Each structure stands twice: as structure tokens, then as C-alpha cells.
Amino acid sequence: MASDGPSAMPPSTTLPFKSAYERYVDTVSEITSLNIQLAMLETCSHTKLGEFARPFSVRFGCKTTGGGSHPPVAHLTPRTVSIDHLYDDNGVNLYERFLRSHMRLVAVTKLAFGPTSVECIGAELALAESYMRAGLWKQCHDHARVAEDILNEDDGVLNSLSPGGSSPLKSPSSMVKGHASRTTDAQLHHARALFSKMGAAAGLFGSMYDRYLHTQDASFQSYLRHLERTMQPEVLAALTTAFQSVQTSLDEINTTSHLVSSGSISDVLLTHNSADVQRIGHYVKSPPTAQGALQITWPELVEAASRATTNAARAGMQCKTLLLHGRYHMKRGQVDDAILWLRRAVAGQVVVVGRDNHDMVDYFVAMADALCLKHTQSLQVAKDAHDQSFDKWCLSEEGVAACRNEALHILEDIHQSSRAKSFMQKQKTIKLPSKKEVEALARQNLRDHHQHGGVGSNSHPATSISAFLDEATELYVHVWTLEEQHYGRQDANTAIAYAGLGNVYILRNEPNEAVGYYTKAIDTFEAACDGAVPASAFLRMHLAKVHMYLQRKVDAMTLLHEAATFFKSHASQFLDSETTRRDAAANAIDAWRGWLQLANGDAHVDTPSIYRNMAEAAEIGYGEFSVEAADAMVAEGHYLLNVGNTDKGEEALTAASYIMEIHYGIHDKRVRKLRQEVVSVGAKRKQGEPSS
């Protein structure tokens, strides 16, 4: 057919060619966009519900609803999160897209900058961190080790982490390391062909040859322009101003202005208020030689600045690898190893950026978490040692005698109380417990007395254990200070810092202080996110447990009801995401069950609505004809029957029996028992008898 010929085919569209560097820029832009969305979801705890709590689990029929365009990042706020923000058109969630982008970044970085470049190391570390955020710790550890191996290939790069340390140049006679070093730099900046031709003339890499290349050779000029582009604009401007000022002073005394003294340029750079510029000033500073002060050119100054920046970046990346190693060991439960790694990471990063820099937050948080874990582990070790000493004491003659005496006291108390009850109520004497039961109760009483410093107890190592919590508390206070200075008071990151402080004070057994910090965290979350978010709801449930410990039942019930109401509303907003809807509904049901346990059968005005809300949450999360909905209806029906509302109670039990019959069949024991209840209630209602 003529229509099937080549002339009928649509014209092919040729994809525009993009260099490796252009693809690198596009990938970085995509990662930045995804990171903004993912960071918001993580800070507000959206990732603890549904698919994001299991980012790589098997999904069935995950399809997005709505149009094919992605929602704009600028309008992504916690109150407008929808299914379109969580998945793309193919059902791939943000974590997978984030990981794929980082995998692509590693590949294009090797093409654009070289396999041993700083950019490649940074891409490997970014991929490792993305694996960590997705919960894939083994892959995170593998890529962190790859980055560490690349860093360790360049010997002497991290001779000094200090920005003000001595210059790492091997010889003060030249600011150029030599042909081999410059060839390596060239491989990273697309000047490979130029410097490979100069292999036979490595000795000519002096100031004169640099001057000639700077003015005559286009490849060398392109190489320098690329170095200048890699610098921060304010750093390059400071270098230019410093070099020109020294040149001007040299012109006045009629010397060669293309050469400047390294000491003079260093003095000018060290007076700058930027730490990056001061780092370059320390780098180019060189002691005078027998031939006088070291003279450098503008190309040499640019190269020195680039290497100083590269060395600082490598130092920071080395600290990042230590941080990832520490988190990996902490995840595996190797707390002592984790603390060793993290202490090295914190010490190195403090030297690189300073203790009061916001980049220290991740390091301080990891260190504080490890110390809290070490405290908990130490408490458990002390408790185990305490129990072993008690068991050993019980086997001694003193322990056996104490157990016998305690058992006799228990039997006497039980006998006297049973006689008093039988006399008052004119009943038969209550049966005494068995010998084994009395011995077990006696041992438990002695164990409790032993733990509080009684007989046979050893000194509790409270001093060594509290040191971990003291350091963790100090770190979390510093983290809160840094977050507030960087983001402000009404930000989700500041709220996370408040929650961390609350967790530390729980471990310190200071619940009143913890309540204050948890309350501040909830208020900050809701102020930052313009309303309740999963993070604030989870904190409410956690804070309710603290109020229960403090015997504040009313406050705990209020918090649980608020959290459950939010989760029910949240589940209704994610009707097109099965896992998110179910997880949110399950949290709502758990919170309301806690509310009912605290009510403990008391006549409360909100109890009927609580049972109804539980049934509605089960229907939203699991479906109208689900087993969970049937269980909620059974609980509601029993409550209504107990309070005398026979009609609605019978209606709820009838609906529940119908649903359970669908799932289990008519001959199932549970179905028959429930149907018997329904028949009994109906018969009593017809006879006019109370349902109780």
C-alpha cells in the first residue's frame, strides 16, 4: 500500500545533542527539584505513612489520577500534598526517581569531570545518602566505601584539615606542582590535549611559559576560564582585586607587574572577611627562599585557588564518608564502632567549617543519637549485671533464707486478708496460692528491693551512664540553636530539633521538661505548615503517653482525640492511595482505642462519637465491607447495647455479621456466635426486656 511507504511515515525528530556537562547540569537541576519535594515530605513525616514508609515494596495497580503534568514545586506545601506529588505518570514514587537521578548523576559526572574528580566523589556520596534516605543501608555503605577509596587514592590531599594550616605544596620554589599534577587537573577540565603535548617539556612549566600560554594559547585560556567558572563569584572577585592591587603597587616602583610576591598577595587575601578567601591566602603563603620572595603569576594564582578549594572540598567529603560509616554501624547496632566513626567525623567537620556552622547539624544529630543509644545500651548492660548479681545472691545461704522469710510473710498476709474477707462476706475461705506462686512472688519482691539498693545490691554505674546523656543534651541544644538561627523559629526543622530535645529529656527521666519541648515542637510544626501534619499528629500520640505516665488522663485523652481526628481526615484525602489511606486509618483507630482505655468504661459524653468515628475510620481505610470495619461495628454495637440503645446496637451487630459472613462463610464459629447475639437482642427487644 502506498500509505505504508516511507513517504507516509512521520518526519523523524532529531534529538538535540547535549554534552556530558550539559547533561550534568540538567541532572543536578532535576535532583534539586526532587530534593525540595522529598525534604518537605520527610520533615513533615509524610514518609511514615503508606507507600513512602515502604519505598521499594511490591505495589499492585499504583496509578496516578489526574493529568500528566507534574505539580510545580513552588506551590508544594504540606496542606496541598496529593497523590500526584508522590508518583509520576508511570507510578514511580519520589524515592525511586530520586535514586535514579543520582545514579545518572554518577555516570555523567565521570564523563564530564573524570572518575577521580571532586565532582565524582560528591556524586558517589550523594548517591550513598539517597540510599540512606530510602532505607537501603547496605547500598549506602557500599557507595560510601567507593567514595572513600577514591579519596584515599590521592595521597597527601588531607594532610591538614585546617583552613589555616600550612601550605601542602611540596616545594616552596614553585607554585606549580609539576607536569603530573597539572595533567591530572587537565583531565578534569578538558585540557587533556594541551598538556599531553608538554610531557617532554615539564621543566618549562615556569612563570615565563605560563605567561606565554596565558596570552597566546586558546586551550590554556579555556582551561583558566573553566577554573575561574568553578570558583564562587565573590572569591574570584577577591582574587582579581588582590592581584590588581599588588600589580598597581609594583608598577609604581617599576618592576615586572606580571609577577607578584606570594607573600604580598597572601597578606591581602588574609585581610578579607571570607573564610574561603582566607583559605586561599594561607595556601599561597610561602616562606622566602635564598633567591628572595616567591614570585607567582595570575594563572598560578588561579590554579592555587582551585586546588585550595578542591582540598577543602575533599576534606569535607572525607568527613561525610565518616558520617555515613557511623550511621551504618549505628543502624547495625554496633554502637561503639559508630561512636568512634562519628567522633572522627565531627572533629574533622568542626575543623573544616567551624562548630557554629549550620553544616554541623547532621553531624551533631548523628552523634547525639549514637550517645542516646549508648546510654540505653549501658542501662541494659547494667540491668543484666544487676540481675546476675541478684541471682547469684539468691543461691547463697543468705538469699535462700531471705526468700523463705519473704514467702512466709506473703502467706501470712494472704491468710489474714482471706480470713477478713470471709468473715465480712460470710463466704468460704479463699484458696491459698501454690508454693511455686508464693516463691515467685517472694523473689520478685526481693528483686524490686534489690534494684532500689537493698540487700546484695551493687553500686549502680550512674555516673558513667549520665555522661552520655549530658553530651547528647548539649549537642541537641546546639542543634536547636543552629536550626533556629538558620531557618527561624517557625520552621519544620526547628520543630524537629525541639522533638529531639524532648526525646533526650525522656531518657533523662525528666518528663515535665520533655512535655514542654514536645508541645513546642507541635506548635512549631503547625505554625510552619499552616495546620496539622503527620509529624504533629505522631508527636501528639507520643506526648499522650508521657501524660499517661504523669497521671494526666484528661490531657492524654485530648491529645489522642486530636491525633485520631487528623489521621481520619488524612486518610479521607488519600482515597486513591491504598497504603497511605490504610496506615492513616490504622493510626486513627489506635489513637481512639487508647482514648477508650483511658476512659475505662466511665460515662463520657464523647464515647458514642468515638465508637462511631472508629467505625468510619475503618470504612475509609479498609473498605466498607472489610473485616476491620466489621470489628469496629461489633465494638460499637456492644457499647450501644450496654448503654441501652437496643435498636442501633442491633443494627450495628447485624451489619457486622453480614460482613463477616461474606469473609468467613455462614458456618464459621465467629459468624454463628455473632448471629446468635443478634437473634438474642432481637428477641429481647420484641419482648420489651432490657438488652443487658
Explain how this protein is built.
- Keywords: TPR repeat.
- Residues 161-174 have a biased composition (Low complexity).
- Residues 161-182 are annotated as: Disordered.
- InterPro entries: TPR-like_helical_dom_sf (IPR011990), TPR_rpt (IPR019734).
- Helix content is 70%, strand content 1%.
- By secondary structure, the chain is mainly alpha-helical.
- A two-stranded antiparallel sheet has the order 1-2.
- The protein is elongated, with a radius of gyration of 36 Å.
- It starts with 19 loop residues before the first helix and ends in a 5-residue tail after the last helix.
Q: Could you list some keywords that capture this structure?
A:
single chain; 692 residues; mainly alpha; 4 domains; two-stranded antiparallel sheet; 27 helices; 2 strands; 1% strand; elongated
What's the SSE blueprint?
Elements: H1 20-43, H2 83-86, H3 94-113, H4 118-133, H5 137-153, H6 179-188, H7 192-196, H8 207-216, H9 218-230, H10 233-252, E1 260-261, H11 262-270, H12 275-284, E2 295-296, H13 298-331, H14 335-353, H15 361-395, H16 397-425, H17 435-451, H18 462-487, H19 492-507, H20 511-529, H21 534-549, H22 553-573, H23 578-599, H24 607-622, H25 627-642, H26 646-664, H27 669-687
Antiparallel strand pairs: 1-2
Helix pairs in contact: 1-3, 3-4, 4-5, 4-13, 5-13, 8-9, 9-13, 10-11, 11-12, 12-13, 13-14, 13-15, 14-15, 15-17, 15-18, 16-17, 18-19, 19-20, 20-21, 21-22, 22-23, 22-24, 23-24, 24-25, 25-26, 26-27
